[in-house]
Amino acid sequence: MKPPPPTSQQGHQSQQSWAATTIVLDHTATRKPAIIKIADGIYCAHDYAVANVFLIVTDTSVVVIDSTESLSAARAILNDFRKISSLPVSYLIYTHHHGDHTRGAKEFCSSETKVLAHRLLPQEIARKNLFLPHRERINSQQYATALRFAKDGYIAPTTTFEHHYTFNEGGISFDLSHAPGETEDHVRIWLPQQKVLFPGDLFYGCFPMLNNPLKPTRPVSVWTESLDHMLTLQSEHLAPSHGLPMHGAAVIAETLVKYARAIRHIHDATVRCINAGQSLDATLREVRLPPELASLPYLREKYGKVAWTVRGLFRQYTGWYDFNPSGLNANPESLRQRVLLEVCGVSPLVERAQRALREDEPQLVLELANVILAGWPGHLRARRLRLSALHRLAAASVSSMERNIYSHAATAAQAALDGRTTLGTNRARSDIT
Ligand SMILES: [Zn+2]
Known about the structure:
- The chain has helices spanning 15-19, 71-81, 99-102, 105-108, 121-129, 132-143, 220-231, 249-275, 280-286, 291-294, 306-318, 333-344, 346-358, 362-375, 380-396, 400-417; strands at 7-8, 34-39, 42-46, 53-57, 62-65, 89-93, 114-118, 159-161, 164-169, 172-178, 187-191, 196-198, 237-238, 246-247.
- The protein is α/β, with parallel strands linked by helices.
- Among the domains are: 7-197, Metallo-beta-lactamase domain (Metallo-beta-lactamase, Chain A, 4-Layer Sandwich), CATH 3.60.15.30; 329-417, Alkyl sulfatase, dimerisation domain (Serine Threonine Protein Phosphatase 5, Tetratricopeptide repeat).
- An eight-stranded mixed beta sheet has the order 1-2-3-4-5-6-7-8, with helices on one face. It has a six-stranded mixed beta sheet with strand order 9-10-11-12-13-14, covered by helices on one side.
- β5, α2 (71-81) and β6 form a beta-alpha-beta unit.
- α6 (132-143) packs across α16 (400-417), α8 (249-275) crosses α11 and α13 (346-358) runs parallel beside α15 (380-396).
- The structure holds zinc ion.
- Residues 51, 98, 100-101, 201, 241-242, 433 line the site of zinc ion.
């Protein structure tokens, strides 16, 4: 098959292209794979998979950054790229351990290929592998689809480093630096001669997933420090691992400054609320992005959410105790719900839930339905109300992950109402982001 011709991107990203950044994980969108030329000899394989792959042609070889989540996507990239260069792959560099960056590695590597990563990457992979059944379950929720990953093509690094690593390959200098943020093992790559910066997942065109509700906590406070450091490089091309490359030193600097400012604002405002002794609920009401940042197309909450960040930081910094003694050794929630049901009776709760649905308060419907179903799991009206609420919450979601979680729950609820069960059928074998 004829490969897509390399295309060149000029100017900064349009609002539309921010919306198309692949990090939003819209599995219903049609992929438009393309090899995009970033600068002379530097290419981005975009939209073959969840994350980009970068290929740098030197005088003697090709250096590859990241590998996608699947061997088939990696193979498609290499097939197309072989029309541009047939040189061997000398290095594969991982930006971090997430599956959308590491699982296609075997396609790119020969026995001669050196694989570079941060020192922490192998132990992050090992920790992830401890929880494979759990991760399959949560990823089926995160993606709300029968997303299946073929064999894991991860290859362990042959060389790791702690802070900084440089090398020259075929006349091109590569400068790697530890840049924690999305993960502890995150690396940014810098080509000083060509002024191309690869920030990995520390920048993508929407509000970042600073705290993923399904995954371990992330080092938010150092994320901004990593971005600050990247700013000092004054890059002329920015090639994030999700979304399209950007060009132009001024627009890149302005974008990174505002991205870092947004993260710092949410982090610092949450810390102030904690120190002021505010509850989580009060903090959630108070902490917002300033309007001038919230209105930026690359800070829309299409993936991460401000409220999820606040929740995550609160728990990360204060522990799980909610400072209400009733929560210290709380009864199971189901016991509390059954007692409420005993006191209130089913009918008033159902009527109140129906009113909440009429008044478009689907979150309240969900919570009231939970109370009813705790004591009466087969209650048909409560189950239907819950299903309606899930559909409304999914439809109203801006964040792709939020929409997927509600949609997954709605599919399971509908199947249970129909007498089927889908639990376990939408299994995703992945470890992305
Ligand atoms: Zn990623």
